[in-house]
Amino acid sequence: MAQTLTEFDTIAAISTPIGEGGISIVRMSGEDAVEIANRVFKGANLAKVPSHTIHYGHVIEPKTKQVIDEAMVSVMLAPKTFTREDIVEINCHGGIVVTNRILQLLLKEGARMAEAGEFTKRAFVNGRIDLTQAESVMDIVRAKTDKARQVAEKQLEGGLLEKIRAMRQEILDTLANVEVNIDYPEYDADTITANQMATVSRSVSEQITQLLDTAAEGTALRNGLATAIIGQPNVGKSSLLNYLTKSDKAIVTDIAGTTRDTLEEYVSIKGVPLKLIDTAGIRDTDNKVEKIGVERSKKALAQADLVLLLLDSSQDLSPEDKELIAATDAKKRIVILNKTDLGQKLTVAEIKKLTGSEVIATSILQEKNLTELEEAIRKLFFSGIENSNDQVMVTNQRQVGLLEKAKKQLQDVIQAVNDEVPVDIAQIDFNGAWDTLGEITGESSPDELVNELFSQFCLGK
Ligand code: GDP
Questions:
Q1: 28 strand-pairing partners
Q2: For residue 240, how far is its CA from the centre of ligand 1 (angstroms)?
Q3: Which residue's CA lies nearest to atom 16 of ligand 1?
Q4: For the CA of 235, the nearest atom of ligand 1
Q5: Superfamily assignment of 220-382 in CATH?
Q6: pLDDT exceeds 90 at position 324
Q7: Percent of the chain at pLDDT above 90?
Q8: Cα distance between residue 403 and residue 386, in whole Å
Q9: 356: number of CA atoms within 13 Å, CB side?
Q10: Ligand 1-lining residues (CB < 6 angstroms)
């Protein structure tokens, strides 16, 4: 819990977990909540609306009038609110980058970033709830976000639905021909061949591969790029972390837990959402002995989308450094040559050659070249996604699993055709792929294939 007693100023935070669902809520509580919201909202005069009402409009940058997102804003005036203070909630749907911009805007206009659990804490301090209630709030919030996620999934994945339907249709068209071939061998023996099945399997399997390629990026977009800060003890990891989490960059959610230890830290670096992986202990400056060595860093690595690898540029590479370079080779990586103020032994060119990665020389202590570092992070991120801007993205593990299964089934079809297995046997996996893809959209049912075929070709008429 927060130590400082700064109640009654106006606090703001993103109240929905980042990465779960496409709808986000930015919440403000305190005396100035309505006034601050009014400055960044166009659609209704929030100072004049009745309590407990919701209003449609746009969040705008007050100076430039630039529209940041479409939003629904609820106004709930004290004392009948969760915190017993004025509360404004901005429901937006622009994803983490936009949501964070809205939060930043509120902070710029005078709100203070809420600490973890601070809304609940205010409810408690202001006599609204007791401690057991405070605990149960977290559970309710969790249940609510599950629902929000379901809704968001339904709304936001129309593009994916279409894509999968199109792939299923390709399979279905071919299946219909195959069925005709099996049931009416004399009907049209020419065009209907196993090769057709293999061709379609190849085509659909390729499309699935493309979708799967988007999965990692889609997840990063929604969840923030999982980022591990790695390096030898004393190289500057904590210093970098502190720089990155300076309050103008940090994104605080009010939901992860009530204590610092369970709070996940997100930062926005030039619009790129980073989720800083808890490399346990790098904040713990009192306990130098416990500071992370190679083994601990490696654990953080497993979950990382992006690695920031720090090397001490004033020293020669140590065997441990080399080990860390090898261990991070397969990752998206930026190598940081830190402590350039102590005299630079390692050069950017040399380390670039050795690692093949982007290399930035910094002095975190003197805040030198840190803007370049942020720019490098931004570039790395957008180089990954710029090709997939209009593309459908897969962001959900269940979908990834089913796509992988369908792909395997299609590859088995190709294999079966290569091995000249009889058509009706190869067809089993072909049917299977159609079913599996249907599971993604929820459209598979045992009789569906028969019905579809019947309606399309009127077999048995
Ligand atoms: P960690 O063990 O990797 O987390 O390293 P810290 O961030 O705790 O830094 C260890 C020491 O190096 C601290 O005294 C920092 O102030 C210092 N330090 C960090 N960055 C620099 C830098 O760029 N130049 C110099 N001279 N010292 C630095």
A1: 12, 88
A2: 9
A3: 365
A4: 3
A5: P-loop containing nucleotide triphosphate hydrolases (3.40.50.300)
A6: no
A7: 35
A8: 23
A9: 6
A10: 231, 233-239, 282, 291, 338-339, 341-342, 363-365
Q: Going by CA atoms, what residue is nearest to atom 11 of ligand 1?
A: 234
Atom of ligand 1 nearest to the CA of 363: 23
User: Looking at per-residue confidence, does 276 or 96 come out higher?
Assistant: 276
Instruction: From the CA of 342, give the closest atom in ligand 1.
Output: 26
Q: Which of 337, 365, 369 to mutate to test the pocket of ligand 1 (most atoms within 8 A of CB)?
A: 365
274 beta partners: 225, 267
Q: Pairing between strand 272-276 and 265-269?
A: antiparallel
CATH fold group of domain 136-214+394-441: Four Helix Bundle (Hemerythrin (Met), subunit A) (1.20.120)
pLDDT, tens digit, for every residue of 354-383? 999 999 999 999 999 999 999 898 888 766
**Residue bearing the CA closest to ligand 1, atom 9:** 236
Whether pTM > 0.70 for this model: the answer is no
Q: What is the DSSP string of 320-357?
A: HHHHHHHHTTTSEEEEEEE-GGG---S-HHHHHHHH-S
